[in-house]
Amino acid sequence: MASPVMLLAALISLGWVDAGQAQDWPARIIRIVAPFAPGGGSDAVARAVAEQLSEQLPQQVVVENRSGASGLIGSAAVANSPPDGYTYVVSSIGTHVIAPAISNAGYDPIRSFAHVAFAGGPPMVMVVHPSLGTRTFEDLVQVVRRRTEPLPYVSPGSGTIGNLIAEYWAETEGLKISHVTYRGAGQAVTDLVAGHVPMGCITWTAAIGQIRSGALIPLAVSASQRMPGFPDVPTLKELGYAHLAVNAWFGFAAPAGVPPAIVARMNHEIDIALDHPSVRKHLDAQGFEVAKMSPAELTAFIAEQIAKWGPLARRLANPK
Question: Bridge-partner residues for 120, per DSSP?
Fold first, then answer.
């Protein structure tokens, strides 16, 4: 693996930046915006990586939770920040694929950002409160089908992959469900555990603690294969929903216009952080499938995700 010094030399030789500019960064605190409330996957990956980056870089890296509008508020704030390499946002399928497809995001998910690094992410999990009386996914279908009123459910927010999965499933089965909107997964899980809402489609990260305690019952996951330690929980793919084999992935983005040298350096540092045993242990425990991409690969990946999920998101958001 190339050292930061070797990386810097290569960037200078390519003419992307002069030596003084690259050597001066970072000269002050770096901020990572988690655009959802504490308790969800965005917050988890931001804090794990920020803590390790603070050890690697000669500056502190801090996390700021700026939630609201399904992650659009925090993401738009970063898109409109100075492109100086000191402000980043945790990007996701929710903030950079789904929400911009169905609402006025205030930014272009590709052109408004320099996409810096990929982190991977956890699957979504369909869970229910024990009071609903269901123990299998098939039971859930029958319970919802028999109801005269739509079954309330929670997700990390409108326009998130949890919201999309639940609505796609209900549409496919001809079921009536009603989305209860929250500003993030933390409060959604709290009310789900309290029994105020009977069902949720939540990130594995946010739900795993309550699943282990028995407060929530997992019925299906959106992972490509069953989760370690939970061999009895089927995947949505196994249950006939191949289109819903998807992770709630996360990445890191900066405002468009950040010097390429800083983007490359930050990509390098985040990749190192993701390999650190403490970070990997933390993310593995929450069901993360850690993966890495170059800035160019990540930009192309997000464009592919927009092409795949955007039409479905728009169709579900605007039913005929």
Answer: 250, 290
Angle between helical axes of 277-285 and 260-275 (0-180°, round to 10): 70
Considering 37-41, 245-249, 271-275, the range whose residues carry the highest mean pLDDT is 271-275
CATH of region 4-121+248-317, choose from 3.40.50.2300, 3.40.50.1000, 3.10.20.340, 3.40.190.150: 3.40.190.150
Q: Do domains 4-121+248-317 and 124-244 have the same CATH topology?
A: yes
Domain with residues 124-244, CATH architecture: 3-Layer(aba) Sandwich (3.40)
Q: Measured between alpha carbons, how far apart are the two ends of the chain, in Å?
A: 53
What pLDDT sits at residue 211? Answer: 96
Q: Is the peptide bond before 255 cis (omega within 30 degrees of 0)?
A: no
3-class DSSP string for 117-186:
EEEEECEEEEEECHHHCCCCHHHHHHHHHHCCCCEEEECCCCCCHHHHHHHHHHHHHCCCEEEECCCCHH
Task: At 133, list the tokens.
Answer: 């009386």
- Tell me which residue of 31, 152, 154 sits closest to 89, measured CA to CA: 31
Rounded to 5°, the CA angle 161-102-127 comes to 25
Q: Between 68 and 33, where is the model more confident?
A: 33
